[in-house]
Amino acid sequence: MRRITLTVIAAVFTLTGCSSSGGKGNYNPGDPLRFEFVRDTFLNQDVKKDAVRFSFEEDSLYGYDIEFVTLPLVVKSGQGYIFAREPFVLVNPLYQVAVVDAGRLEDARYPESFTRDSQFFYLESIWDSLPGKRVFFRMPHGEIISLKFQRVSPDAIILDLGGEPFVIMGYEDKFLNLKDLIYTEPSSLYDTTYHIHFIGTLPALNIYAGWGVAVSIGDSGDVIKVDRDGAVVHENEDGDDFYTDRFISAIGNRWYHLDENHRLVPDEKVYIVKKPDGRLYAFEILSYYHPQDTLKSGYFTIRYGKVK
Question: Please, what's the largest Cα pairwise distance for the chain?
Fold first, then answer.
């Protein structure tokens, strides 16, 4: 993943005139936030081409704070499909996040509660329980592949294919095509040629291409669901058993609306992030378009601050 280029638009400034019931961690719901600093930052990288990870401050404990990506949006049109990319904003799943109504960061108040921003492309919660289980992978365009796992270890994965063992060895840091059960080298993060990327030995599903890949442990697969307008229903909303239904995002694709010209306009929301050690940050999304060429989409500008 490429390193992103950040351009700070506004100088750091300290907010004054805000009051609170106490220091960080002593806020009550509804209290106005006080900030150590606030910055406006343009992320000079097109998220339609690559995922962008951003950190509020340099932090040796956590690799990133927010991830900006685009995921496939597929709409049925006549006898075919139209593919587009929909922008998602995801908070590090180790953190908690809250969404509050506020037109500006400076007007945000402490939330009633926080929730965890789960990301749906990791399989670590089921990986240790795979031996002896049959797993159904739904591939792009709805095709379902059924695989039964005999053994999973750091050295090898053994599948049961028609009663015969099939051994996959040396999968660390590899990209696996499930249909052919061969390793492949993708040309980009959004490539369609692989379905599982082993980051070390941790498997991550390729959710970026086509309709993405979903997985379910059970007795049978199920079908792609579309709404009455022909749009493919998002995985976290379609009610089936596939693993991606566990996707819960406080922000996700719900951070914007479309204006009369079909341009993305950020909602008047502020997102408050709580790290495991209690540190608090807040951010709002200012724009999805390049500041020097407002016809170029895919470029985020955010305002963020560290809460006292």
Answer: 71
